[in-house]
Amino acid sequence: MATRLVVLVIAALALSAPALAITGGTVDGGAHPAVGMLLADRGNGPEPACSGSLIAPTVFLTAGHCTAGLASARVWVTFDPQYTSVSPLLTGTAVTDPLFGQDEKDTHDLAVVVLDAAVTGVAPYSLPRLKYLKDDVDNWGAVIAVGYGADQPASSKKNPTFHFDFTRRYGTADVEKVKKFEVKMSTRNGGVCHGDSGGPELVGSTVIAVTSWGDVRCAKKGFGYRVDTPGARAFLGQFVGLP
Questions:
Q1: Residue of 28, 38, 55 whose CA lies nearest to 128
Q2: Cα–Cα distance between 189 and 174 in angstroms, integer?
Q3: CATH 2.40.128.50 fits 1-243, yes or no
Q4: pLDDT tens profile 102-149
Q5: Could you give the 3-state DSSP secondary structure of residue 213?
Q6: CA-based nearest residue to 4, from 12, 39, 16
Q7: Alpha carbons 223 and 213: distance in angstroms, whole number
Q8: The pTM is what?
């Protein structure tokens, strides 16, 4: 069974399969400064949970399964390229799409963190126009996936284990199909994994989808939840201006 791509609480948030880390990816450094890590308190203070991206100075976009069910909506975000115990943290309030998890066909796997203070010195990513993605993927080019997830696929499907160094990485996604609510990607040559959930799938500086789920080993496929659909835009339009 596939698993959602959260670093520490995969079992608690299991809705489907994981999205991939960036396994086989390139260490990001400062290439994508608007991509950050989401941290949540599960009893021990801030702990790494997911990835995400800045889409307005005070709005951080991530996946719904990263924030649904948290004991507190108060969370943290860091844009440090490699998270450590001394990384600077921003505080904010997580808001999960209220339709998340109510429809198996359209999961509404989206959330935002409304930050307490504006991020300065970092250009937010843009969102796509309505129905930006077309059936012919050649119309919109290569997709770059960015996140802080596991850096290698698991060697075994039974009791898989993953390595995390909490470093931001990126890789080029091989898009197989644009579905009604999702983008399907092949990850056989590297891709998203646990911890990359919520991270952006980018065409240039535009977020076309957020990493959502994939196969249990992070070795075959990954899916991103599209943000150009009417349902996604209805939620996101409450927080940011839409093209």
A1: 55
A2: 9
A3: no
A4: 888 899 999 999 999 999 999 999 999 998 886 445 556 678 999 998
A5: strand
A6: 16
A7: 5
A8: 0.88
